[in-house]
Structures are given as C-alpha cells and as structure tokens.
Amino acid sequence: DQQVKQNSPSLSVQEGRISILNCDYTNSMFDYFLWYKKYPAEGPTFLISISSIKDKNEDGRFTVFLNKSAKHLSLHIVPSQPGDSAVYFCAARSNTGNQFYFGTGTSLTVIP
Amino acid sequence: KAGVTQTPRYLIKTRGQQVTLSCSPISGHRSVSWYQQTPGQGLQFLFEYFSETQRNKGNFPGRFSGRQFSNSRSEMNVSTLELGDSALYLCASRRLAGDSGQYFGPGTRLTVT
To answer: What is the CA radius of gyration of chain A?
Structure first.
C-alpha cells in the first residue's frame, strides 16, 4: 500500500518558468516531509524539508508547501534551470517508527 | 568527510543464487537503512539498523536480511534470488536513528537473470 504518492511520473518545463511537483500522502501520523533529487547513477540527495507544524519552507529557488488538511505537499522551483532536470522523490517520516516512506518519483525535464 | 559508499556498484546473478551487498556509512553515522528501488515502485524500505540492532523492517520476505557491524558498516543479503529482485539497492545513513534526514549512497544495481 503506497502511503506516499506522486501521481505525475514526468513533467517538462521551460527554463526560467516555475516547476511544480506534487505529492499526496494518506497517513496522518507523518510528522516530517522531505524532497530528494536523484540524478542517474547517483543516490538521492536531500533537497528541502518541512515539519508538519509548518505550511511553507523556502530555500533559495526551492519552496515546499504543506496542506495538512488535504494531505498534500508540493515543491516549487523558481526559476527552473536545466540543471534541475532529475527525478524528484517525495518522502514522509512516521512519528511512530522513524521510518521513511517514499513516493514513486517525478522525472523533471527543464528545456533550455 | 567521505559520503556513503556501497559495493559493488553493479552485480549480475542467476536466479536461485544469493548475494551480499555492502554499505559503509558516513563516519560518525550509526544508523543505516536499506531501500529497494524499482521502476514504478519508488523506494521501498527494507530495514534499518542502529548500533548493530535492527530497528525497523519493511514488508519484504525473509529472503532479505541484513546486519550491522560494530563499526556501523552494514551488509544486506538476499537468498534464493528471483527475477523480481532485480533493482537498485540503496543504502542511507544518518547520525542517529531519530535524525530527520539521511544521506544516500550511489546504490548497487543488481540484475538477476
């Protein structure tokens, strides 16, 4: 049972525009959410995170929004750059067992 | 500080064989988690070890096992390999089991033929 879902397998965006990646979750016990970026032949690298007590966290071009009532989070990248082309994974941590649950990933392509 | 390292990077095995994968965490990190990544399934949690003890376990059959040594290095073993075990196996470390972030290694690409 997939507790974290990324329903868009892929996304293409023009350079300079905004990229919006979405993630939905089902478990209300998740207390921490993260986004990872993964390039081919490399492991995922941490990008940005947000605690369940917040609804927004910003780090440079990256902003994560959390809507707890909708059990939805999104990652905004503004402006998008070709180097942002990668697979993005959404992850959530359970407050009971410290286990991380990952989505299936969204492949972002930024077109120059 | 060196990152998480995994060996080997690529492996080809035959159905029915067994395999052992190795992970060396970042120095000072005591928690090691293992994940299986397959297309369409994302990263599926296998198990986590902390101070040589398994703390959490995902929904995988008993053919998948692991251990952690006193230096925090971890190994993962898969016995009686099946074609469906072909995947990228990722290891991640964090300093303590309760830390909010984890650092991933490059993975071991296992192909079962």
So the answer is: 13
CA distance B105 to B97: 17
Count of C-beta atoms within a 10 Å radius of residue B98: 10
Find chain B residues with C-beta within 8 A of A2's C-beta.
42
Nearest to B9 by CA among A37, A43, A46, A38: A43
Residues of B with CB under 8 A from a CB of A: 4, 33, 35, 40-45, 48, 55-56, 58, 90, 92, 97-98, 100-107
d(CA B6, nearest CA chain A) in Å: 10
The pLDDT tens digits for B8-46 are 999 999 999 999 999 999 999 999 999 999 887 889 999
CB-CB: which of B56, B92, B106 is closest to A98?
Answer: B56
Q: Give the number of other CB atoms < 10 A from CB of residue A28.
A: 10
Predicted local distance difference test score (pLDDT) of residue B99: 74
**How remote is the C-alpha of A87 from its chain's centroid?**
10
Å from A83 to nearest chain B CA? 19
CA distance A16 to B90: 32
pLDDT tens-place values along chain A, 112 residues long: 789 999 999 999 999 999 999 999 999 999 999 999 999 888 999 999 999 999 999 999 999 999 999 999 999 999 999 999 999 999 998 877 678 899 999 999 999 9
User: Does B90 contact A43 at a Cβ distance shorter than 8 Å?
Assistant: yes
Q: What is the spatial distance between Cα A101 and Cα A11, in angstroms, rounded to a whole number?
A: 22
